[in-house]
Amino acid sequence: MRIPVSKPDITQKEIDAVLEVLQSNTLSIGPKILEFEKGIADFIGTKHAIGVNSGTSGLHLLIRAMGVSDGDEVVTTPFSFVSSTNCFLFERAKPVFVDIDEKTFNINIDLIEDKITDKTKLLLPVDVFGQPLDMKNIVNIAEKNNLKVLEDSCEAIGSEYDGAKAGTIGDAAVFAFYPNKQITSAEGGMIVTNDDDIADICRSLRSQGRAVTGTWLHHEQMGYNYRLSELHSALGVAQLSRINEIMKKREKVAQLYYYYLKDVDGITRPWIDPKVTNMSWFIYSITFDKGIDRDKVMNLLNEKGIDSKPYFTPIHLQPYMRKMFGFKEGDFPVTERVGNSTLALPFATTMEEWEVKEVCEAIKAIIGKF
Ligand SMILES: *Cc1c(COP(=O)(O)O)cnc(C)c1O
Fold first, then answer.
1. Which residues pair with 202 in a beta bridge?
2. Is the pLDDT reported for residue 106 higher than 90?
3. pLDDT value for 153
4. What is the radius of gyration, based on Cα positions, of the chain?
5. Where are the beta strands (DSSP E) in the chain?
6. For the residues of 111-164, what is the DSSP string, one character each?
7. CA-CA distance, 6 to 311, in Å (whole number)?
8. Hey, whose CA ends up nearest to atom 4 of ligand 1?
9. Nearest to 2, CA basis, from 359, 251, 249
10. Could you give the CA distance from residue 15 to residue 86 in angstroms, rounded to a whole number?
11. Is residue 299 predicted with pLDDT exceeding 90?
């Protein structure tokens, strides 16, 4: 029996919710998406929530809604999932990467201002692995320089920094619901914002550029089909109803890892900023000391039936990014060092103590050989 790197937590409640939609004859554009949107808006505390078919779609719609286009510069982090950069490459804007903080793995806020030019349009920070950012500080920098702020909170639903939920401080944010995320709708995402104009544009663009109050074949602008189906929405609603339970269980798994890894030499456990008042765990990643080959550890774990993953491979070193912009090794040293030495361990809401223990004992035995 293998221990997978992630696993969704699906109960009878989720199964019933999806079956009910199948029997209702309304499979898209119905009451479930509205219920999911209202649920997220209430939970996060924003005026608007707009459901879309993926986190990437949500990010792309916000890039369009914020008017980021040809030649504009976006200041962001290279230590993320590729979507947080692709979303503005789709609109031919240019990435300006800032290296990360060694401890949190989030964008190093102290380095942002130096990268702002007269072409900068947007700051796009990412709440990496669920750890929320000091968004007030980032918004201050943005206001001084007349920039918008898009927070990629795809990994951080429910996290809080200094009492403020991830996704509530900038101009808009996105959450994602792929099956490895804290809560899932199989595929799906949610834009959140307090800005009426941004919300209107996103609602129109996700459904082929229709006016929100217009007819089916009237298209105000060039849009997309980024809609979230009723089946996906119903699954999302059921998961959201359990979010407090899910976050608590994930916190427990993270604590078990913290405990069972406490006397393993050669690794560093995740560091959570004390200003984080609520941590919504996305993954659990450890960092290996110099001299321990991360990939070798991963392969040996695999032989023992334990799945793990390097998380993340830096965006600027992806083949297409090197080709498009000429990025190379050495451009963002902290990102690269972290990217080469971190490993995401099996992590799921349903993970049992014996599984965590088994993973930790396997790591200990493997590292002992180095
Ligand atoms: C999951 C994720 C996304 C969105 O991914 P989708 O698969 O499109 O839902 C975007 N950014 C980050 C940082 C993510 O982890």
1. none
2. yes
3. 98
4. 21
5. 48-52, 73-76, 94-97, 120-124, 148-152, 160-161, 164-165, 172-176, 189-193, 267-268, 276-278, 284-288, 342-345
6. GTGGG--TTEEEEE-B-GGGPPP-HHHHHHHHHHTT-EEEEE-TT-TT-EETTE
7. 13
8. 55
9. 359
10. 33
11. yes
Is pLDDT of 216 > 90?
Answer: no
Q: How far is the CA of 27 from the centre of ligand 1 (A)?
A: 24
Q: Which positions ≥6 away from 51 have C-beta within 8 Å?
A: 33, 36, 37, 40, 188, 189, 190, 227, 228, 233, 236
Nearest to 353 by CA among 254, 247, 256: 256
Checking if the pLDDT of 218 tops 90, the result is no
Query: Which residues form the pocket of ligand 1, taking CB atoms under 6 Å from any ligand atom?
Result: 54-56, 80-81, 83-84, 126, 152, 154-155, 176, 178, 189
Best of 5, 6, 56 for a ligand 1 pocket test (most atoms within 8 Å of beta carbon): 56
Report how far residue 52's alpha carbon sits from residue 34's, in angstroms, rounded to the nearest whole number. Answer: 12
Domains annotated on the chain, with CATH:
12-98+106-240 (3.40.640.10), 243-367 (3.90.1150.10)
pLDDT(1) > 90:
no
Residue 281: name the closest of 167, 130, 126 by CA: 130
pLDDT digit string (tens) for 169-211? Answer: 999 999 999 999 999 999 999 999 999 999 999 999 999 999 8
- What tens digit of pLDDT does each residue of 28-44 get? 999 999 999 999 999 99
Each residue of 272-292: pLDDT tens digit? 999 999 999 999 999 999 999
**Chain centroid, CA 135 distance in Å:** 15
- What is the length of the chain? 370
Residue 6 φ then ψ, to 5°: -155, 165
